[in-house]
């Protein structure tokens, strides 16, 4: 058949899955494949200060899979081998989210956190997705101020917001224009399949968090016959990419805020914010109004009402939000801080929980974020008037964060995507995992991912707080179900809802030696 001649190119483009029935299994397996699929990783010790078992290598992948012999990108990968070769099932590829998160060190992080039964069965494989970190990193040359997209809507400043969005898009195009159109989820999924092929595996198992859930879902649709045991933790709804995923931060902050006011009211004696949920809410919005009139001097920085609203994620953790609001109120009133209050931690929470030390140097993470978020889909409005209308409306409907979420973004000025977003039409026997109270990929988003992937099962940690479930909280009720699936490959017979113990629901207490593998910058997936 003439199609046989094109099998390597189709495979490289992620299309072979739709043509294999035409070729036949024997013919497809006999296809030699393009050169990049025949490379062998040159494994070496990642660094002298890391264990010898932690190995690194660099692969070459096509910049454009439609041109497999054209320009290439580096793809940095890492591994830690199975702890029991006799029980080894295959490789488990890991992704921390982002877009723009480095995953090269995930095998190290996961090695000590996973149960022995899981570690026995997998080589843990980390990688920096294309454009990230050690994988031909891109830049837009953005200043710190230009990287901040938490921009509240005000009629008098909307023009400067439009200028900012256009400037970011223009600078990205200027600095990385030749590469930018190819930094997309579909191409990263193709890179994942290249890793699978180069490692000699017939199928790929996968653990992806946050944005990594969407990446895993796309892989499952592009390569269903190669999708093995997939765990998608803290789910992105494929129907919301990507403006809708930013807007869901606003819609779901409102029930989290209401839950917090109830929690704080029940502890009015401790925090002094009000004896009823309405009183707590009035205290909060009064504080925001005061800070808008005159910024609050808090730990050496001037805190505005917009800064307080931008910390919307903290209200998914009532035990963290309450001391933060109480400390801000005390500062506004000129009162001393409550004894024992960790004010440095409160400042970190006010900044969205970010830690500059953990963020990649420069603007690499931000550049990849916009490349993917703007380049995955053409659904972004192209007229700034729509952003202004939406932001003004959502500031009223979702007062905590609605105007931030719907305000103009660089995607309004981005080049049109090279290809369409991936439809979710094929069955995918994967496991989705979700906390009930997740600030970045809220429950409604995780449920949307579960619905989109026909044949999937969901494990829901009722009462679970925070972004990231499996291994993030040692006491999470979801860990056992994920372990069982990774060990056996058998999905639960039906969806599972378990109840987190009160200590886990009240405050997350991850093991001190384990740091969260998510990108640290606020406003990421």
What does this entry look like structurally?
The protein has 525 residues and is of the alpha/beta class. 40% of the residues lie in helices and 13% in strands. The protein has helices at residues 7-12, 16-23, 25-30, 106-111, 116-121, 144-147, 158-176, 185-198, 211-222, 243-265, 268-271, 277-293, 305-310, 318-333, 343-350, 364-375, 384-397, 402-406, 443-452, 479-488, 502-506; strands at residues 44-45, 55-62, 72-80, 90-95, 122-127, 204-209, 227-233, 296-298, 301-303, 431-437, 457-465, 496-499. The strands form two sheets. A ten-stranded mixed β-sheet has the order 1-2-3-5-4-6-7-10-11-12, sandwiched between helices. A two-stranded antiparallel sheet has the order 8-9. The longest helix is centred in the middle third of the chain and has 23 residues, at 243-265. The protein is globular, with a radius of gyration of 23 Å.
**N-to-C terminal Cα separation, in Å?**
44 Å
Biggest β-sheet strands, sense, barrel: 10 strands, mixed
Residue runs with pLDDT of under 50 for 5 or more positions = 1-31, 354-359, 508-516
Beta fraction: 5-15%
* Mean model confidence by pLDDT: 89
What kind of oligomer do you see?
Answer: single chain
Structural class: alpha/beta
Tell me how many strands there are: 12
The total of helices stands at 21
Rg calc: 23 Å
Sequence of strands across the biggest β-sheet: 1-2-3-5-4-6-7-10-11-12
The helix content, as a percent range, equals 40-55%
Shape: globular
Give a quick set of tags describing it.
two-stranded antiparallel ribbon, disordered N terminus, alpha/beta, 10-stranded mixed beta sheet, 525 residues, single chain, 12 strands, 21 helices
């Amino acid at each position: 058949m003439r199609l046989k001649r094109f099998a390597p190119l189709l495979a490289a483009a992620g299309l072979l899955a739709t043509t294999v029935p035409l070729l036949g299994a024997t013919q497809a397996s006999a296809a030699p494949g393009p050169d990049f699929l025949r490379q062998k990783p040159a494994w070496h010790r990642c660094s002298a200060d890391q264990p010898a078992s932690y190995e690194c290598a660099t692969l070459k992948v096509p910049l454009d899979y439609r041109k497999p012999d054209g320009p290439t990108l580096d793809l940095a990968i890492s591994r830690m081998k199975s702890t029991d070769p006799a029980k080894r099932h295959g490789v488990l590829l890991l992704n921390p989210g982002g877009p723009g998160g480095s995953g090269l060190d995930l095998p190290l992080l996961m090695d000590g956190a996973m149960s022995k039964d899981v570690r026995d069965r997998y080589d843990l494989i980390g990688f920096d997705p294309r454009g990230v970190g050690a994988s031909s990193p891109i830049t837009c040359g953005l200043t710190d101020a230009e990287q901040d997209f938490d921009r509240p809507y005000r009629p008098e400043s909307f023009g400067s917001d439009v200028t900012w969005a256009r400037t970011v898009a223009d600078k990205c195009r200027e600095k990385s224009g030749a590469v930018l159109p190819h930094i997309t989820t579909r191409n990263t999924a193709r890179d994942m399949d290249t890793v699978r092929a180069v490692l000699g595996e017939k199928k790929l198992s996968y653990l992806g968090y946050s944005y990594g859930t969407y990446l895993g879902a796309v892989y499952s649709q592009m390569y269903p016959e190669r999708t093995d045991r997939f765990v998608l933790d803290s789910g992105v709804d494929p129907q919301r990419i990507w403006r809708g995923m930013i807007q869901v931060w606003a819609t779901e902050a409102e029930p989290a805020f209401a839950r917090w006011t109830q929690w704080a009211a029940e502890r009015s004696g401790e925090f002094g914010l009000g004896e009823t949920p309405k009183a707590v809410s009035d205290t909060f919005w009064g504080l925001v109004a005061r800070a808008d009139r005159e910024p609050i001097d808090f730990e050496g920085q001037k805190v505005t009402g917009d800064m307080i609203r931008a910390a919307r994620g903290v209200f998914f953790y009532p035990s963290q939000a309450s001391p933060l609001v109480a400390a801000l109120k005390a500062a506004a009133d000129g009162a001393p801080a409550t004894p024992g209050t960790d004010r440095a931690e409160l400042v970190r929470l006010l900044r969205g929980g970010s830690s500059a030390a953990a963020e990649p140097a420069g603007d690499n993470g931000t550049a990849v974020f916009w490349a993917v978020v703007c380049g995955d889909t053409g659904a972004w409005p192209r007229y700034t008037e729509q952003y202004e209308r939406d932001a003004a409306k959502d500031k009223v409907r979702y007062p905590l964060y609605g105007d931030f979420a719907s305000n103009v973004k660089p995607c309004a000025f981005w080049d049109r995507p090279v290809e369409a977003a991936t439809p979710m039409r094929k069955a995918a026997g994967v496991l989705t995992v979700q906390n009930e109270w997740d600030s970045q990929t809220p429950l409604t988003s995780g449920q949307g991912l579960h619905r989109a992937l026909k044949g999937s099962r969901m494990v829901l940690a009722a009462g679970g707080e925070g972004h990231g479930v499996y291994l993030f909280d040692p006491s999470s009720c979801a860990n056992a179900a994920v372990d069982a699936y990774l060990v056996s490959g058998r999905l639960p017979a039906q969806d599972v809802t378990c109840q987190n113990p009160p200590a886990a629901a009240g405050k997350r207490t991850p093991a001190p030696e384990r740091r969260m593998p998510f990108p640290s910058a606020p406003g990421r997936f």
